[in-house]
Write a structure and sequence with these properties.
- The chain is α/β, with parallel strands linked by helices.
Length: about 190
Amino acid sequence: MDKNEALKKLHEKWLRECICELRKTATQGVPGDGSAYSPIFFIGEAPGKSEDLEGRPFIGAAGKFLAEMLESIGMKREDIYITNIVKYRPPNNRDPFPDEISACKEWLMEELALIKPKLIIFLGRHSMNHFFPLEKISAVHGKLLIRTWPGLGRQHFLPLYHPAAALYNGGMRDTLKKDFKKIPQILQKIG
């Protein structure tokens, strides 16, 4: 079976079976989006209002900024894969609770196992803290982290500030753009 077809089936399964409590308040689930063959796997926090309505991740203002940054390194949205640690919108865009993250964990891990990316990029502290609970994004943004993860083996991770946070903070925006420019060199370095 083609990886894109397998990914579609994976999402259909989890849209039926996910036990996340956020299902009760969200319009719909928001599965990951993009190429199942992508070497880059972006992980954000949770769907926002636009994503909840459309059923696709990162299509609001933060998604437009992400598309700009991808363009700046010669990539398009179709070249990458993007998802969130939580697949349903939290009410009023609040931070997801640990039990909500836990309820969506297997879905995320199956996405990662199917795609087998070279580089996993965290967009914000929530996705980073899922894998690196003791790290502070302010200390490790833009730095390559390497860790062996159960079921995934040795992985390369790059924490970045979330595009939504950078939209409202000029200094953070410049930092995110600078960190983003490291992606091609990191991909080259890890082969």
